[in-house]
Structures are given as structure tokens and as C-alpha cells.
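quick one, 161 residues, struct below
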Amino acid sequence: MSCVYRKTDSVVVCFFGDAAANIGAFHESLNMAAVMKLPVVWVCENNQYGLSTCICRTLAGGSIGLRAAAYGHDRLHRGRHNVVEVLDAARSAIDRAREGRGPSLIEAVHLPLVRPRGFGQPLLSDEGRRSTQWAAKCPIKHYTAMLLEQGILSEDAAQGP
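---
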């Protein structure tokens, strides 16, 4: 039973990877959440690879966010490697859900080849390139640098225990 019926401010947040967007249950869930205006926030961690296959070879329609829009989700949030941008999108989506305006989808899209390793094994010759690109785009490193620059985090704290 959703918060709309129970009169609470509870919101369901569902995390999934881009490859899960090709499963029938994903589409059924988007449709049902939209029809019932359920307080759901979908968060897609889209690294553009399902196992070792580029999503461009398995995804019709351009983006997972467009799929959500097709089911009546009013908003599409997209984050890249910026933790604050994704947090702002999450706050907006949660507020929207609590106001009874239905579900949202946050598609955190990463540039291709950013996963540091394959699932359980290296992905052939891409391993070195993938690791290098990930290191340059790591959202944790970027967020840490921002906190250091703003004086919120000290060098000692950034180094950890």
C-alpha cells in the first residue's frame, strides 16, 4: 500500500542497472506506478554496458529515461559524474512523489567504458582503457575535490583513517 493511501510521506527508491531496463517486469512496474501515481523514484545506474555488451546494441528509443516518459512519468532527471547534481535530482523526485504527483526516474548516465572492471572478469582489450577513463571520471574523487576546495573537508579527513 502506498503512502498516498496510507497518508504517510514514505517514498520507494528502486536502484537498477541499465541492462535491467530490457526486462518485462521493469516496463510493467513503470506502467503500474504511473497509472496509480505511486510514490516511486527509479534510479538507473547507466554505465552503458550490460555485462560486456554496449547498451547501444540492446536499447531502442535512445534512452531509458524516454521509456519512463512513455509511461507517463512527468520528469526525467539525468546526472553524470556530479554527486550534487544527482542529489538535487533525487530531492526533486522525492518531493514530487510526496506531493502525490507520481513516480520519477533518475537516469545517472556515465560515459562509455567507465566501469573499472568487467563483471567477474576483464573485458578483453578494453581493461586498461576502462580503468584509465574511470579514474578520470570517478564521482567520489570529484566530490572530494569539491569539498576540499570549499573548505568543508580537511586534507587529513580526506585521507581517511
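The chain is about 40% helix and 15% strand.
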